[in-house]
Every structure is written in structure tokens, then in C-alpha cells.
Design a protein that fits this description.
The complex is a heterotrimer of chains A (about 180), B (about 240) and C (about 475). With about 180 residues, chain A is α/β, with parallel strands linked by helices. Chain A has six helices and seven strands, in the order E-H-H-E-E-E-H-E-H-H-E-E-H. The relative contact order of chain A is 0.20. Chain C has about 475 residues and is α+β, with helices and mostly antiparallel strands. Classes of the chains: A alpha/beta (about 180), B alpha+beta (about 240), C alpha+beta (about 475). Chains in contact: A-B, A-C, B-C. The interface between A and C is large, with 68 and 78 residues.
């Protein structure tokens, strides 16, 4: 496998906990960062996804039209796609609305639980998908990292392996939840 | 023990001897061979329903459930192979896809046999489309809750309530994908006239489907160890 | 000619947001909107869950401030149980809450905003990240990592893990504090205090570089709201809600948090998934108020810990009235970090913190429960209704960042009008529009009980839609 030098991180429909767990590597993140360039991430000001990225960590499930187009673009421009955390892997809490669907959710939030100007927002906001989906139901995924969130230690191991040129498997190493 | 009661067989290429009335699972466990199980629990009858303990037996067309298959003389059993591993993982994926198992927010997170099996068998995601059924939670009992979303229909609750407590409160209704464990004639658990509130069902439930309300947040909420002990005590009385 | 500029995504903040600016023919910004583009729907999909699961479920609203949700949720559950939890349990929850504050403020200040504060708003975009700060200013980077780690370690030691921990349960907490852990926690305090003081020194030394930004970063009169205790001091766990105006007059001195629905309403706008809470007596949008560090420091009579009190006085010297510029959220965050750290120490020093009885037991005694606490970003409200068996029938969450929504939108307009002008749109101009949002440290996942993020493209289009110029960032 050719060298891994560029890393991207993305959050879809999640809570950012997986990214926080990444930061929970504390100073080890700073140390590791000498081995790669963070080319796209909520933590940096790059605004367009680069043409080619070696590794992209994806947190969160696919829940809106925007998530969908985003993840497809990311897959196209990424060599190794890592589903990070239970939301990306299984839908997890983000998918809990699948038993009732987006309609009742919108009614509860914007009609029932609002006092004035009750309406469902539609301008400049993406439509919610009928079903929240795990990432691999939409694009092929190369590495699956369970956990809600995966521990900082697990993420450190995953990154270290990838930077060393190996594709890790987390089966038997990390569990859901 | 007479000679007629011993059977010799091989498990994963190793010669072992077992009693004639033993199952492959019992024989394997006695010889420290590890076969994953879910519906099986020491102290209750076996039903072979979860299919996690499937093993290869030379000469048999299909994989056989080790917990309900009796040993036979000369049997050649394989407990792990790529084929078996694939089937076990498929079975596990089906469990996760059938109902709503959100490990992260489950009361049994960290102490769940389904979750542990996923870890043990290296299952990190589910390829089968999730069903997302709408299933109820019955919290009418003062001490216990039953959450159908987390049930895997192992029927341990049914069996322990029948075989050990004798109350027969738990039963199974419906067929196939519509099966559900119910209390009495599908009445709220809190209204049950047969339930003795002994809590045995809660202790043997492998997931967060049956749970003791006051144990929320506890790191070790379930204690099924009473089961083999009770079995011995009762058999001792009968002897 | 008139045109629309879209900043998509807003980076270095938590969640998904984009900004649209509409310019008139003269190139003056007429309108600015902040679109939050994701929604998960906790208020609906929690229906049917047993109420005692809500802390664990609502923790997943946010990975930065799960503890805030754990605590507000547990308090709502306490109300459903109709219990008064043991005092030591309340204090243990307090420590957890304060540690959350330190960790989250450290994230906001160092990881998200320090690139702007240290390297300048016009610094090249590729240099504006914590990883670069760690290289260009290694000791500051180390302090940032250490302070976030401090907060996270306190949470980990108390509650078992850093993100989405358990431990906080309806009725109290799960496990008492051991002497060993108490000593371990106390040992961590001096290092944290020193790091915060170092940070205050360099930050205050550089603040005059930002006098222009201070002038226009959401700098306008609003009400301020937050929890206060019976001494009128900032309270993060319990207390009553107070509302003051921009002159410092107390509009409402002691509001019962459980009755929030009588004085806080929520409005919807069609362009964002985030709602707009407002102070009902003044209607929408007149009843716009701000919450969070700036509000809390404006509300407080003083700080009840010595070092923070000194800093608080210095903060208030900036203005005889409440401090109005949202730029000073950054400053307020540092003061709060100091306050929180000192308070943690004080709570740990109390012998009774080791008390073993940490949980009250009961079953469902109320059909409704409200839990209110101060999260890092402001007042957080959890409101549940349950059936007789304790299954959730309805839920409402009013999230800290949401309270600031109206102020953020106004702030973007104010900043954009000052910096974005004419035909040429420089990258640093747009960064400033984002930077004003960053001062609020919004938690957009929280505020829509959802989250997301977006990339940034600026398109200059003529009135007929023809693309004139495209500016891409990054």
C-alpha cells in the first residue's frame, strides 16, 4: 500500500463525540500530526474537499440529502474510507427516528414545540432522508471502527496502523456502545 | 459408569470421550473447546433456536446445533471453519437487523451477551438491511421492564419461568418475524396474576430486554449464577 | 448589482452551518442569515423510552457537552421521581458539570478560536488550525491540550469515561467518590490554574489588536439570562433564572426554571433548522437575549472564588454596564475556566464529598419533570412528560446555543456590513463573519439536537444569476 500522508475528517449526522474522542488522544494527536497533513476537517479552514485524500475518517450517519451527496463525493476522492463510530456503522442514535420517520419529527419540533411562526424550515436547509442510514449502505467502506464513541486509544491504534501502511480490522478489538 | 455409556469422538481433530447422554456442546465445554451460544444457558433445557452453536459434523449435510445434538460414537466434529464463521456472523447480523439494538444507549451496554458475541465473532457492521420495527416497551411491573426492541427471542425467560419457578408467566405468541414474548395472555406484566416477581427471567435475559429498574447504571446488573445452584439444590431434594 | 454570497461550511465550530449574505446594488450587505442544516429529532424519537434512559440517550445530543445533558436530564428525572437527591450527590454532579465547562471552553478557545486569536483573522487559511498553532506556538498549544485534558480527566475519573459517561442517574449518582480519587483530582488543580493564568496573560496582552472586531462582533444591546444562586452569584447546577437588560437592570430577578415555558417561547424561521427562543414578555424578536459565559459574567454579582473574582473585576472594568461585545465571550470563557477550576477544588476539599449515600430511590411520582442547568454555552432545559409507568410521552429540549440564535444572526449582519463591502471579497473578510459566530461557541448539533458541517464557497452572481466570480476557501 502506498504511503498515507493526507488525512481528512468529516462529520455527517452525529454528535461530534467521535471527533472529540480523536482529540482525546491529547498530545499524541500533535505527535502523530507530524506524520500527516490534515487536509480537510471541521478543525481546519479548508472549504472544498481535495481531489485526492489518502484516509478520510467519517463520523455520523447519512440523514439528509446533503449528507448523501457529501459522502458520495468524499468516497470518490478518498483512497481509504473509515467509518468512525456507531452512528456511521449502524445508524445508532441518529437512526432512532427511523421507527417513526422524519414527518412526525418535524411536526413535533416545529409545530408542537414552537410558539410563533410555526412552520417546517425549507429554505437553504437540506431535506431529511426518509431513512437514516449507516455509511456502508450508501458507499463502500474500508475500515469499520465501533464505539460510541470509539476510545481515543482505539482511534490512535487505527491511525497508527494506517500511517504505517496497514489497513486494520477492528473485529474482536472494539465493541458497539 | 458402564462402557456402553461412553462415546468416543473427535472435536477439531482431538480425540475425546463423552457420556452417551451428552450433547456436543456439553462434551466440548468439558474439554475447554469454546462454542458460542446465546439461547443456551446452564441450568435450563436447550432449544437450539439461536443457531449460534452450529458445528460441522462429518457426514451430515447441514450444520448442526451443538446444544441439542447428542454425541455419537466416531463423530467428527469441527467447531470453527471459514464456513461456520460465515454462518455464525450471518446469524448475528440477522439478530441485529431484526429489531432495534442501539448498544450505546441500552441499559445493558457493557454487560450484554449479544454485544459480547459481536465483539467475539468480529462483527463490526451489518450488511443485512435493518428492519426498524415499531415495538413496545412494557414498564407496568413495579420492579421490571420488558423492552421488545432488545429481545432476541432466546426464550430463556419462558424456560426459566416454566422449568424453575413454575409460574409459566412468559410465553411466545405469533410466528416467524412476528413472534413476541408475552406475559400471560398478552396482558401488561404489571397486571399478571401468575407472575411471582421472582426476577429469574430478568437475571437470565442475555440482553437489555428484561431489566430491573433499580439496577439502571449498574456495571453488573445481572446475576444468572443462581441457576445451576438452584438446579443442584432441587435435584438434591428429589433424589 | 445585487448579489448573494454563501459561506458554506462555517468551519472551526461544532456542527453544520452555512451563512448567506445578500448585497444590494451598491455592494452593501442588506441581509445575513445563518442556516443550521441538520436535525435529529430527540424530542420525538425518545417517545416510548423509559424515563430513566433519558440521561444516556440525551447525552448523545452532543459529544462535546454530553455531561451537560446528563445533568439536565437527570434533574428532570429527579423531578419525575419527586426526590431531593442527597447533597453530596448534587455536589458530585456539580464537580462533573464544572469539569465539563473547563474542557469545553478549552476546546472552544484553543482548538477552534486560537488560530484567529494568535495568528490573526487574515492569516492564510491553511495555517488556521490547532495543529499549526501547536507548531508555531508550542507552549500555548500544550496549555490548550493540557486544559482540555484536565477537564476530560476529571470527568473520566469521576464517571468512568470521558465522552458519554454514565454515573449520573435519576436520584443522584451511581457511585460515591473514593478518597484516592479525591486526592488524585486535587493533585491536578494547580497545573490547571497555572495554565489558565498563563493564557489570560497572553490573551489580555493581545486583545487590543482586535479593537475593530470588538466593535462589531455582535456588539449590541440584548437581554442576558442565566442561573444565579441566592447570593446573586453565577450558579451552574441549580438556582433560579435571572434576566437583565443591557443597562444591567434586573428585568426578572428569580424565575423558577421549571416554569420556563411561561417566559421562554420558541420561534421558527424558514431558513434554519435551529429555532429562536425569546423572552415572552417582550415577544419575538424584541425579546432576544444572550446566554453563556458573557451573560453569566454580566449577571454575576461577583465570583465566589478568589482568583476568578480578581479576573472578574478586571473583566467588568471594561464597562460600567454589562459588557455587550460578543468578542468578549472569549475573555469570559477564560474567567469561567478559572472559576470552575477553583470551585472544583473547593468542592473536593469538603470532607462530606466522600459520603457514601449518593442516590435516592423512588418510582414515578410526577407525570412531568423539568431539569435546568448551565451548560458551557448557556442555559440548558430538558422537559419530559411520562405516562404512569414512566414511559416518555413527550419531550422538549431548549438548548444553550439556541438561545443565542437571534443574536448570532444579528451579529453576522453587523460584522458582514462592516467587513464585506464592494466588489472584492477577500478571504479574511469572510473569516471574520465566521469568527463572530465562533465567539458564541455554538454547539449546532445540540441546538438542533442534530449536527452537521458544510464547506465554504463564495459565489458572486449578477441579479440574473450569471456567475461573475467564485472565491473558494481552502
Amino acid at each position: 500500500m502506498s504511503d498515507v500522508t493526507t488525512l481528512a475528517t468529516v462529520w455527517l449526522d452525529g454528535c461530534s463525540g467521535c471527533h472529540m474522542s480523536l482529540l482525546d488522544m491529547d498530545e499524541r494527536l500533535i505527535e502523530l500530526s507530524s506524520q500527516f497533513e490534515l487536509v480537510y476537517s471541521p478543525l481546519v479552514d479548508r472549504k472544498t474537499f481535495p481531489e485526492q485524500v489518502d484516509v478520510t475518517l467519517v463520523e455520523g450517519a447519512v440523514a439528509s440529502e446533503e449528507d448523501l451527496s457529501k459522502i458520495r463525493k468524499i468516497r470518490e476522492h478518498t483512497r481509504i474510507l473509515v467509518s468512525l463510530g456507531d452512528c456511521a456503522l449502524t445508524g445508532n442514535v441518529s437512526a432512532m427516528r427511523n421507527t417513526c420517520g422524519p414527518g412526525p419529527v418535524l411536526m413535533r419540533v416545529y409545530q408542537e414545540n414552537a410558539d410563533v411562526q410555526r412552520q417546517v424550515p425549507r429554505i437553504g436547509v437540506p431535506e431529511l432522508l426518509a431513512r437514516v442510514r449507516p455509511v456502508h449502505e450508501v458507499v463502500p467502506v474500508d475500515v469499520f471502527v465501533p464505539g460510541c464513541p470509539p476510545s481515543a486509544e482505539t482511534i490512535y491504534q487505527v491511525l497508527s496502523e494506517l500511517l504505517a501502511g496497514r489497513v486494520p480490522t477492528l473485529g474482536g478489538v472494539a465493541h458497539f456502545g | 459408569m458402564t462402557e456402553a455409556n461412553i462415546r468416543t469422538l473427535t472435536i477439531d481433530g482431538v480425540d475425546i470421550s463423552a457420556r452417551a447422554d451428552q450433547t456436543i456442546l456439553e462434551a466440548a465445554r468439558e474439554h475447554n473447546v469454546d462454542i458460542p451460544t446465546l439461547c443456551h444457558i446452564e441450568g435450563l433445557s436447550s432449544v437450539g433456536s439461536c443457531r449460534l452453536c452450529l458445528v460441522e459434523v462429518k457426514g451430515a449435510r447441514r450444520l448442526l446445533p451443538a446444544c441439542v445434538t447428542q454425541v455419537e460414537e466416531g463423530m467428527e466434529v469441527t467447531t470453527h471453519s471459514p464456513r461456520i464463521d460465515r454462518y455464525r456472523t450471518m446469524v448475528l447480523e440477522m439478530f441485529f437487523a431484526e429489531r432495534n439494538h442501539v448498544c450505546s444507549v441500552c441499559v445493558a451496554n457493557g454487560s450484554c451477551e449479544l454485544q459480547s458475541l459481536a465483539l467475539r465473532l468480529g462483527m463490526t457492521h451489518v450488511e443485512i438491511p435493518y428492519r426498524y420495527p415499531q415495538l413496545p416497551v412494557d414498564a407496568s411491573h413495579p420492579r421490571f421492564t420488558v423492552d421488545q426492541n432488545r429481545c432476541v427471542l432466546c426464550t430463556r425467560c419462558v424456560r426459566v419461568c416454566s422449568e424453575v419457578e413454575g409460574a409459566n408467566t412468559w410465553g411466545v405468541m405469533g410466528r416467524g418475524g412476528h413472534s413476541m414474548v408475552i406475559t400471560d395472555l398478552k396482558e401488561p406484566w404489571g397486571d399478571s396474576e401468575t407472575c411471582t416477581s421472582c426476577g429469574k427471567c430478568v437475571q437470565v435475559c442475555p440482553t437489555g430486554a428484561l431489566f430491573e429498574k433499580s439496577h439502571v447504571g449498574s456495571k453488573a446488573p445481572k446475576h444468572p449464577e443462581f441457576l445451576p445452584y438452584l438446579r443442584i439444590m432441587r435435584e438434591g431434594e428429589q433424589a | 448589482m445585487s448579489r448573494t454570497i454563501t459561506i458554506d461550511p462555517v468551519t472551526r465550530l461544532e456542527g453544520h452551518g452555512k451563512i448567506t449574505l445578500r448585497l444590494d446594488d451598491a455592494g452593501v450587505v442588506q441581509d445575513a442569515t445563518f442556516h443550521v442544516t441538520q436535525l435529529r429529532g430527540f424530542e420525538k424519537f425518545c417517545e416510548g423510552r423509559p424515563f430513566y434512559e433519558m440521561p444516556n440517550i440525551t447525552a448523545r445530543v452532543c459529544g462535546i457537552c454530553p455531561v451537560s445533558h446528563l445533568i439536565a436530564s437527570s434533574k428532570a428525572c429527579d423531578a419525575i421521581l419527586a426526590v431531593r437527591i442527597p447533597p453530596v450527590a448534587a455536589n458530585l454532579r456539580r464537580i462533573l458539570n464544572l469539569a465539563q465547562l473547563v474542557q469545553s471552553h478549552a476546546l472552544s478557545f484553543f482548538y477552534l478560536s486560537s488560530p484567529d486569536l494568535l495568528l490573526g483573522m487574515d492569516a492564510p487559511a491553511e495555517e488556521r488550525s490547532i495543529l499549526h498553532v501547536a507548531r508555531s506556538h508550542p507552549s500555548i498549544g500544550a496549555d490548550g491540550v493540557a486544559l482540555r485534558q484536565f477537564g476530560q480527566r476529571v470527568i473520566e475519573i469521576l464517571a468512568g469515561r470521558r465522552i458519554h459517561p454514565g454515573w449520573t442517574v435519576p436520584g443522584g449518582v451511581n457511585e460515591p467518590l473514593s478518597e484516592e480519587k479525591r486526592d488524585q483530582l486535587l493533585g491536578m488543580i494547580p497545573g490547571a490554574v497555572a495554565a489558565i493564568q498563563r493564557t489570560l496573560t497572553w490573551f489580555l496582552g493581545s486583545i487590543e489588536k482586535f479593537s475593530a472586531e470588538i466593535g462589531v462582533f455582535a456588539n449590541f444591546p440584548t437581554l442576558f439570562m442565566g442561573l444565579i444562586d441566592d447570593r446573586g452569584l453565577a450558579e451552574y447546577y441549580d438556582g433560579a433564572l435571572r434576566v437583565i437588560d443591557s443597562e444591567g437592570n434586573i428585568i426578572a430577578g428569580e424565575l423558577d426554571p421549571a416554569e420556563y415555558a411561561s417566559y421562554i417561547g420558541e420561534a421558527v424561521e424558514p431558513y434554519t433548522y435551529m429555532k429562536f427562543p425569546y423572552y415572552k414578555p417582550l415577544g419575538y424578536p424584541g425579546g432576544t437575549y444572550r446566554v453563556g459565559p458573557l451573560a453569566r459574567l454580566n449577571l454575576a454579582g461577583r465570583c465566589d472564588t478568589p482568583l476568578a473574582d480578581e479576573e472578574w473585576r478586571r473583566f467588568r472594568e471594561m464597562s460600567a454596564r454589562p459588557v455587550l461585545s460578543s468578542f468578549h465571550y472569549h475573555y469570559a470563557r477564560l474567567v469561567e475556566m478559572l472559576h470552575a477550576t477553583e470551585k472544583i477544588e473547593a468542592l473536593l476539599a469538603d470532607r462530606e464529598i466522600l459520603d457514601r449515600h449518593v442516590r435516592a430511590s423512588a418510582s414515578v411520582n410526577n407525570a412531568e419533570g423539568v431539569g435546568v442547568a448551565e451548560a458551557p454555552r448557556g442555559t440548558l432545559i430538558h422537559h419530559y412528560r411520562v405516562d404512569e409507568n414512566g414511559l416518555i410521552t413527550w419531550a422538549n429540549l431548549v438548548i444553550a446555543t439556541g438561545h443565542n440564535n437571534a443574536a448570532m444572526n444579528r451579529g453576522i449582519l453587523q460584522t458582514a456590513r462592516h467587513y464585506v463591502q464592494g466588489d472584492e471579497v477577500k478571504e479574511g473578510m469572510l473569516n471574520r463573519v465566521e469568527a463572530v459566530v465562533r465567539t458564541f461557541d455554538p454547539c449546532l448539533s445540540c441546538s438542533t439536537h442534530a449536527m452537521g458541517r458544510m464547506p465554504l464557497t463564495v459565489e458572486l452572481r449578477a441579479a440574473d444569476g450569471t456567475l461573475l466570480r467564485e472565491v473558494r476557501r481552502g
